[in-house]
C-alpha cells in the first residue's frame, strides 16, 4: 500500500469517526414513539383464587392483558365463572368474561394462561390502574385484586 493511499484511508476513517460522534440526531423517547407503549400494571390474587394478570401498553395503540389463575377454580366449566373490572363503587367497568372464557381451559384448581390484545378505546394501563379485578363463580365473589401500576 502506498503512502498516499494509507494517508487517505486514515483521513477517511478519522472523518467517519468525527461525523459519527458529532451527529446531533435527537432521540425521541419510547413513550412518544409508541403512544404510551411500555406502561405496565398488574393484579395479584392472594385469597381464594391465586394468580397474576398484567396489562401492558404495546405499539399500535393496544393493551395486552396476560395472566393465569393458579388455584381457587374448583369447577372445570368455564361458563360458570365471570371475570370483570369494577371501580371503587363496585360498578362494573369492563367485562372480560367472553375474552377469558374463550381462551382458558380450567383444570382444577388452576387454569391455562390467558392473553388478549384490546384497543385503547376499550382498555389501557392508564384506564385500569386502580380498578379491581373480580372473579365470580355462579354469582359468588371468589376473589378481588386491585390493579397496581408499575
Description:
Keywords: Signal. Residues 1-24 form the signal peptide. The chain has a single domain, classed as Immunoglobulin-like (Sandwich). 23% of the residues lie in helices and 41% in strands. It has 4 helices and 11 strands. The strands form 3 sheets. It has a 5-stranded antiparallel β-sheet. Strands 5-4-9-10 form a 4-stranded antiparallel β-sheet. A two-stranded antiparallel ribbon has the order 6-7. β6 and β7 form a beta hairpin.
Give the topology, please.
Blueprint: H1 3-22, H2 30-33, E1 40-46, E2 50-58, E3 62-71, E4 81-86, E5 92-95, H3 97-103, E6 106-107, E7 110-111, E8 114-119, H4 125-128, E9 132-137, E10 140-146, E11 148-149
Antiparallel strand pairs: 1-2, 1-11, 2-3, 3-8, 4-5, 4-9, 6-7, 9-10
Keywords: Signal
Signal peptide: 1-24
Termini separation comes to 59 Å
CATH topology: Immunoglobulin-like
Fraction of residues in helix: 10-25%
Mean pLDDT across all amino acids: 87
CATH homologous superfamily designation: Superoxide dismutase, copper/zinc binding domain
List how many beta strands DSSP finds: 11
- How is the largest sheet built, in terms of strand order? 8-3-2-1-11
List keywords for this structure.
single chain, 150 residues, alpha+beta, Immunoglobulin-like, five-stranded antiparallel β-sheet, four-stranded antiparallel β-sheet, elongated
In short:
The protein is α+β, with helices and mostly antiparallel strands. It has a single domain (30-149), classed as Superoxide dismutase, copper/zinc binding domain (Immunoglobulin-like).
Amino acid at each position: 500500500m502506498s503512502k498516499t493511499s494509507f494517508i487517505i484511508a486514515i483521513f477517511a476513517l478519522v472523518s467517519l469517526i468525527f461525523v459519527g460522534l458529532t451527529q446531533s440526531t435527537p432521540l425521541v423517547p419510547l413513550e412518544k414513539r409508541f403512544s404510551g407503549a411500555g406502561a405496565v400494571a398488574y393484579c395479584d390474587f392472594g385469597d381464594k383464587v391465586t394468580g397474576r394478570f398484567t396489562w401492558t401498553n404495546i405499539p399500535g395503540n393496544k393493551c395486552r392483558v396476560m395472566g393465569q389463575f393458579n388455584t381457587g377454580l374448583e369447577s372445570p366449566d368455564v361458563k360458570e365463572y365471570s371475570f370483570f373490572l369494577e371501580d371503587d363503587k363496585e360498578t362494573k367497568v369492563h367485562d372480560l368474561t367472553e375474552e377469558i372464557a374463550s381462551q382458558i381451559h380450567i383444570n382444577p384448581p388452576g387454569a391455562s394462561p390467558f392473553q388478549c390484545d384490546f384497543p385503547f378505546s376499550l382498555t389501557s394501563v392508564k384506564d385500569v390502574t386502580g380498578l379491581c379485578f373480580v372473579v365470580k363463580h355462579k354469582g359468588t365473589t371468589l376473589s378481588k385484586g386491585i390493579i397496581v401500576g408499575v
